[in-house]
Amino acid sequence: MSKPVGLYIHVPFCVKKCPYCDFYSQSLSHDKEYIEAVLRNLRRYDETYDTVYFGGGTPSVLPQIADEVLKNIRLADNSEITFECNPETVNNYVLDGLAAAGVNRLSFGVQSLNDTELSALGRIHSADKAKHIIQEAAMCGFDNISADLMLGIPHQTKRSLIETIDSLCALPITHVSAYILKIEPNTVFGKAPPPVPHEDEQAELYLLAVHELEKRGFMQYEISNFAKHGYESRHNLKYWHCEEYIGIGPAAHSFYGGQRFAVARDLDDFLCSPKQSEQTTDKCPDIREESVMLGLRLTEGIPEELWKPLEAALKRVPKQYYRIENGRLSLTAEGFLLSNEIISLLLNEM
3-state DSSP call for residue 276? Predict the structure, then answer.
């Protein structure tokens, strides 16, 4: 029997596009047709899935997609089923429906628990709404809840970040994804950048978040991800461990059958085509190179057989940016801030 693979379902709908967001999404439309198109594409694969991730966009504006997908695929025992939610688009009825469908992990786009910062980010929820719905989710039986946290955002200070982390970690969550705000050119922020902390200040906020989260029991296991013991995202670990996954929906990516490919960012095309339009991005990926590149995103790092041939390049990396323990090379929190440069240096050696 073949090894189970991961499944990513992209739900490209939002109530409102956030000014910093570069993900493919638009206003909710064609909901029934969209679900039918997803199911039509899923029928092409005879696979067993042990992780399923509904991302977006805002999947919680189309909660019925969870039930429709999960009853039409083959799941391994003890599968991880994640559903992304905007706090403003979820209520007890939606939460009960997701639980009944088989969803066992929720990911809330909290971003901040400071209303001034939320307003500057164009978020439609308040801090109180986010706190309330996470507590409601726990009362509905969800015991694996993740929250997104943004760093280096307008009006954010070290004090406001610590206050957000304090409030966030007091909630019944098991996982935090903490991302530094990146201004993308094709966004509202890209066309009219807001005042944000300087790059050095952003780095300080990142290191502060690492320290404060770990102090509260959320251990860093990837550049932007922190979890209580045993609650690391199994689906996202597939990406970083170079394991296979299938992506369904416009803009979704896949690594399957030894190839990497991506779906066109075109909702109309996805709805009308018998098979989603896919473009091969890498016919024959260099797994050794990818294992270095993706493995160094993780605090577990890479084994000696991968880094030893790169030792000459590694000697040019300042020692505060990496560690070697039990034969494995990994980056420190300070090294993660320069991960692109360090990984590029090492890959050039290959």
Answer: coil
